[in-house]
Design a protein that fits this description.
This protein is of the alpha+beta class. The chain is built from six helices and 18 strands. Strand 6 and strand 7 form a beta hairpin. The structure holds FE2/S2 (inorganic) cluster (FES) and fe (ii) ion.
């Protein structure tokens, strides 16, 4: 179960630059390509002729041509043509609201009539020349809520990421969790500690000494449907911590878009946005490589955890203080799913009534 009436990151433009991309989002099998005007399009990945996946076809003059017998599909889900056939009575396929923004392709898997562009997460750092962004994509065989739990409870860094960002002070420092509307915020502030290897590297890259004590912070923000943005950084100790002047700190924003594929798998778009040395492309690559290695460590843990939960579905999970962020985020998600059900049932009934009158 996932919120469906929401914008999810489905893919990045490079993924369908050469050929259509087949991808399942929230259980909906979709194909992504560009139409004749260069706009990103998301359709059901199903050819109305014999059910072949349209993603195995190619794009020809802005139309998606099925790779099996040449049916040409329009961006509205209506068949345009097929060799030697009349197509006017061919059934339509679904067309999903789809938009390109901030360097990502966003899709709305729910009822298209409810799609609202104003609901796309605002990313103030994107398209801003003072900021740089680098990121990647992992496919992970776990429910999306497990990844939300993971990102809203960073005590796991001490154990899963012991050689890069983990340190025992994370365990020793309690976190604070609060809920503001549909946003859940978990924060932890550590003072006068040694910086772990990843942050020593970031200090050096920011022309700061890497052998002095630092103040470190982690502020995780969960927002619907399943996004987690984490403000992270270190400042030379005693310079104001989170509020220190830029010349005393290295700070970044960890960007996590968690897009459910099925109930037990996700497309995990991870990345890091930073506002120091934004034009240094080799630094972007270096940070992305480091982050990619760190986040790969989560993949194994989450997939094995998911397998255990499927193996023992009746066992109850504990909810400790450190789990508060994930627990509150799940409540927000559950509230959203319930609200969607309340909207969609009358909508479906109204449509059925209209159809029977017609
Ligand atoms: S299955 Fe697509 S044209 Fe035949
Ligand atoms: Fe992690």
């Amino acid at each position: 179960m996932f919120p469906r009436h929401a914008w999810y990151v489905a893919c990045t433009p490079d993924e369908f630059a050469d050929k259509p991309l087949g991808r399942t989002v929230c259980g909906e099998q979709m194909v992504f390509y560009r139409d004749g005007a260069g706009r990103a399009v998301a359709l059901e990945d199903y050819c109305p002729h014999r059910g072949a996946p349209l993603s195995l076809g190619r794009v020809c003059e802005g139309k998606l041509v099925c790779g099996y017998h040449g049916l040409a599909m329009g961006c509205d889900g209506k068949t345009v043509s097929m060799p030697s056939q009349r197509v006017d009575r061919f059934p339509h396929i679904r067309s999903f609201p789809c938009v390109e923004r901030y360097g990502f392709i966003w899709v709305w898997p729910g009822d298209a009539s409810l799609a609202d562009l104003a609901k796309i997460e605002v990313l103030p750092w994107a398209d801003n020349p003072e900021w740089a962004y680098g990121g990647g994509l992992y496919h992970i065989a776990c429910n999306y809520r497990l990844m939300v739990d993971n990102l809203m409870d960073l005590t796991h860094e001490t154990y899963v990421h012991a050689s890069s960002i983990g340190q025992k002070e994370i365990d020793d420092t309690p976190c604070d969790t609060r809920v503001e509307g549909d946003e859940v915020i978990t924060s932890r502030f550590m003072t006068g500690i040694k910086a772990p290897p990843f942050w020593r590297m970031a200090l050096r890259m920011n022309d700061l000494p890497d052998d002095q004590l630092v103040d470190r912070w982690q502020i995780c923000h969960f927002t619907l449907p399943s996004h987690v943005m984490i403000e992270v950084g270190v400042a030379l100790a005693g310079k104001g911590g989170y509020d220190a002047q830029p010349e005393f700190k290295a700070s970044t924003l960890v960007v996590d878009f968690i897009t459910p594929e099925t109930d037990t798998s996700i497309h995990y778009f991870w990345g890091m946005a930073r506002n120091f040395k934004p034009r240094d492309a080799s630094l972007t690559t270096q940070i992305r490589n480091g982050q990619g290695q760190i986040f790969a460590e989560d993949k194994d843990m989450l997939e094995r955890q998911q397998a255990n939960l499927l193996r023992w579905p009746d066992r109850r999970l504990l909810k400790l203080n450190i789990d508060a962020g994930g627990v509150h985020a799940r409540r927000v998600i559950d509230r959203q799913i319930a609200a969607e059900k309340a909207v969609i049932a009358p909508l479906a009934n109204a449509r059925t009534a209209t159809e029977s009158v017609a």
